[in-house]
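REQUEST
  id: r-88c1
  op: predict_structure
  target: Aldolase/citrate lyase family protein
  payload:
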Amino acid sequence: MGRTLRELWDGTDATIGGWCSIPSPFSAELMGRSGFDWVCIDTQHGLVAYDQMAPMLQALSITATPAFVRVAWNQPDHIMKALDAGAQGVIVPMVSSAEEARAAVAAAKYPPMGMRSWGPIRAAFDVENYSPEVANRRTIVAVMIETPGGVENLDAILAVPGVDAIYVGPSDLALGHGMTPTLAVTDPEHERLIETVVDACRRHGVVAGIHCDSVETARRWHARGYAMFTVGSDAALMRQAATAVVAQAFEGSRQVVLPATGQYA
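RESPONSE
  id: r-88c1
  status: 200
  body:
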């Protein structure tokens, strides 16, 4: 049995996660068998619905790889159903205030820490003596900072009990601040915003995470203090590999250019 998300978070090492946007248990299993510390199923911008998310979580269980679900929005039903289905953590998009962060934590935690309703239909599988206390300890809550309000209210958000990680979506962070959405950060102001987030995380002892377009970008942000990474997604990695095969097959005589909009987090 692999380590749980909580055991990863209580450790000191940086983690790298896989990202699933294709609605397929087989794709999820492949990502889970690829050596990632964890895998996130994306129900916000991926093509994954609830009835597809559940078997993807089952597939990840086979690989003993702990799973996040990026929920579609900061709503209790989205968060509770993802956790009931077996996710060990949630990534909650577009959190712009301490009040919104508290709402995300409340939906993810059973009373007295929160308001999560009892119904762990898959969550209790393979968890010895599952209880509200055990679940509250195990569940990881990561909130996304990607809006001007989120940046402005960073310290208040990070002070909310139960926020385990901040996850930066560079594209929306840029878009909300009047810049071109991209994961390949070149604008100095975009870079300053990303560094503002990790500096605040250091002050509060919260893990800083970020979505990246390449291994080089992940190394860049790791050097700045980030410790939770994803590089691309199952769809992006498959398309990149397929494109490389086409180019190599014709020894460079045929060029296929991937659109810059292929990365979205």
